[in-house]
Design a protein that fits this description.
globular
């Protein structure tokens, strides 16, 4: 690997870490669901990368659709992504 290049997993973790404060804010505001488009927009991930995280992290299947877009439980998404990144401060209530 060339100097200065990140591995795919490191790149994913960096982008997910950008998403955690947004999800935490939604969770504190007691927003129940977050749309897939919002996750993509705030993380900078593309659709395939987000799907890999959802699959690998065992995020519960979307439970509803908001304006035709899959929506996920905000608290579950926050906990799964925080565990994936090792950001355990988001797991403490």
């Amino acid at each position: 690997m060339a100097t200065g290049k990140l591995s795919f997993d490191s790149m994913l973790k960096q982008q997910v870490m950008r998403l955690l404060p947004y999800l935490d804010q939604l969770n504190q505001q007691q927003v129940k669901y977050v749309g897939r488009n919002n996750l993509l927009e705030h993380s900078g991930l593309n659709d395939n990368e987000l799907q890999k995280l959802i699959h690998d992290g065992n995020l519960p299947r979307h439970t509803m659709k908001i304006m035709g877009t899959k929506a996920y439980d905000t608290e579950s998404a926050l906990k799964m992504l925080a565990r994936y990144c090792g950001q355990y401060g988001y797991l403490v209530d």
